[in-house]
Automatic annotation (TrEMBL):
Residues 185-356 form the AB hydrolase-1 domain. Pfam families: Abhydrolase_6. InterPro entries: AB_hydrolase_1, AB_hydrolase_fold, DNA-binding_regulatory. It comes from the Bacteria. It comes from Arthrobacter hankyongi. This is Lysophospholipase.
Amino acid sequence: MDVLRAPSAEAGTAADGGTRTVPWARWALLGAAGGAAAGSLVAGATSGLASYFARQVLTPVRERPQDLAILAVVGSGPDREIILPATAETTAPGVYSVYFDAGAGHARVGEVTSYSPREGTVQRKVERVYSGDLARAVRGWWGGSAYPDPAALGLAADEVRIAVEGGDAPAWLVPAAQEARTWAIMVHGRGATRTEGLRAVHTARSLGLASLLISYRNDGEAPHAPDRRYGLGLTEWRDVEAAIGYALAQGTEDVVLFGWSMGAAVSLQAADQSVYRDRIRALVLDAPVINWVDVLAYQAKLNRIPETVGRFSQWLISNRAGRVVTGLAAPVDLKLLDWVARSDHLAVPTLILHSEHDDFVPYGPSAELAERNPGLVTFERFSSPGHTKEWNAEPEHWERAVTGWLSRVLALPAG
């Protein structure tokens, strides 16, 4: 999922394509202006910032900021390594991706071979360059989708099309080793693509499940929503419903939904509202958005946006009067997306995997949902840095937790 960025007071962009941080010190000077004029300016600025923040949440971003400096690439062939600035994510164990050349280049990086806290750099093994000339790259971004397609996992797959509103949505169908009565449907997060679900395909296959890795509205592959805005789960679930319908038409009996971040919010709505909800056997949710109000408040704080501005942004998103600035065809009912408050409405066995160090979607609501509905919700805590990086940093933990839990829920034979 993309990290939201606040606008500057001038609403400009930084040189790297990201958005500059709000200089609140300048806004504080308005207090010295005194009188109604200053109050009017503050009110206007508050409204403008709230509108901008709401649009940032709802509008798909097509260009990712290349906010990772690629300091050097050394060696060649199997001995090639990449040197990057040391951060909590770039020094974490596991397998990740470095995207460069505006996303046209993609390299998979693995183990840390050298770490220099003094110099603030980390050196990692380059496992594979899938596209682009990494040696010439100078900037890019860090990602958790380590593989570009099922073939990179050594698996055959069919490219299929699923009929959705506005056209067809592409998907990968990775068959099980034998005929499968249950399919896993992988639902990626905000700003991500179907590659995000590749991390779970081997696990699903080990359980005898076929995997359908879908695209959905506004993700750059599936058709746009009519308003070209995210519904935060309240509209996207219909594309998941279409995917379930496709699976059932191919002869499967039921499905397990795997959802990452906003994809988890989408999956929860599908389990709540779809005509096929009785065919959903289980939910596996990685770093899920359990309560959008909590996430929006956290993001506002992260971007140093005053609490009142953040609350006004939520009002704009959830009320009909806000449509003129958000561009939404219909307001988003944030109460329907609060699964802590609606814990008794959850009727599907659910496994939540969430890191306590998630820097985008706090894990608190995940733990609270499990506490409120312990009969159906199992919470598995991780300690990996970053958002939706649980599998990347702790693959054995992730796969063991999912395999053990799904084996019990689906009543699979031992071994």
